[in-house]
Write a structure and sequence with these properties.
Shape: globular
Oligomer: single chain
Distance between the termini: 40 Å
Strand content: 5-15%
CATH class: Mainly Alpha
Largest sheet: 3 strands, antiparallel
Order of helices and strands: HEEEHHHHHEEHHHHHHHHH
Number of strands: 5
DNA sequence: ACCTGACCTCGTCT
DNA sequence: AAGACGAGGTCAG
């Protein structure tokens, strides 16, 4: 038996389960060995062997990224390297921006099963119904519909105090104050500042939106888990003492993280996050 | 400019 | 069985 070399294997196979169950997306389910998911106005149907010629799939899985280059660069850090070796098929997805934006506003101070339930109810209440392969799906609601919905009806989806955030955020998009194609063209800082002007969006949520839907791979959402990871494995590089962080600490820390991990830091964060949560057997999509 | 508490709702855990 | 606890944060004072 030959021993594997210490450098990373060239593994390009995408692992759907690991990718979907990594806290980026919430509206996916597995039915008889296929994955079905809502992405904006589309329902994507995925088989384990992905059709890379399919334009939607190519775009959603970011096959335009050079994964080998990204992995090699991130593997300079041993903790990330271990995580990549455990989940080599995990990818960052390029989501529908509006869905991503609302999803992470809804995610604040909550947990994944709750987030999933709320988003499913939002789609069921405000989204268009679509039948595919004899199965019923509800697409993600249009900005205009949520902008004109009453806060009371949004709250019935279990959003609590986030209901007004969602309505305001939808209004901003509907009015064109928030325009995703324009934000995409801005550099990371300006893009994040623009998103943070929306009521209900702080730095962490803005980073999620940027990383998961607006192509900013240097965005690193600093949530409770990432902070925990930093104090556990990187106590020398980054000193974290508190459970939550202030606005200024967030920026300082982000700068140091990008300096340490490089411009693909967002991918690095995702591998660390996936690995750590799995090791604690935290719940993903139900 | 920081720092602290409050906050809807729903699993779990006790 | 009812009550406390905390969850991928954000806002207001």
């Amino acid at each position: 038996m030959k021993k594997l070399p210490s450098k990373l294997k060239n593994n390009f196979e995408t692992n759907l389960s690991d990718t979907i169950n990594s806290g980026q997306v919430f509206l996916w389910k597995q039915l008889d060995s296929k994955w079905y998911g809502v992405n904006g106005k589309k329902v994507l149907i995925l088989e384990e062997k992905l059709d890379k010629n399919n334009k939607d799939i190519h775009n959603f899985f970011r096959f335009d990224d050079n994964f080998q280059k990204i992995k090699n660069q991130l593997s300079k850090d041993n903790v990330v390297k271990d995580a990549i070796e455990k989940f080599p098929g995990m990818r960052i997805l390029r989501q529908d921006p509006f869905q991503c934006y609302i999803s992470f506003i809804v995610s604040s101070n909550s947990n994944i099963p709750n987030i999933q339930t709320r988003l499913e109810k939002l789609c069921h209440t405000f989204g268009e119904k679509k039948m595919i392969q004899d199965k019923e799906f509800f697409l993600f609601p249009e900005p205009e519909i949520l902008a004109n919905a009453s806060i009371g009806n949004i709250a019935k989806c279990g959003l609590g105090y986030r209901s007004k955030y969602v309505k305001e955020a939808a209004i901003a998009v509907d009015k064109g104050i928030i325009d995703f194609p324009s934000i995409k063209k801005l550099d990371y800082q300006d893009a994040r500042d623009t998103l943070c002007q929306v009521f209900g969006i702080g730095k962490k949520v803005a980073d999620c939106i940027l990383l998961f839907s607006l192509d900013k791979l240097e965005a690193v959402p600093l949530d409770r888990w990432v902070l925990r990871i930093l104090q556990k494995y990187y106590s020398k590089e980054f000193q974290i003492t508190t459970k939550t962080i202030t606005d200024k600490t967030y920026d300082n820390l982000h700068d140091k993280i990008v300096e340490h991990f490089g411009k693909y830091a967002g991918y690095g964060q995702q591998f660390l996050f996936k690995n750590e949560r799995d090791s604690f057997e935290k719940k993903w999509l139900g």
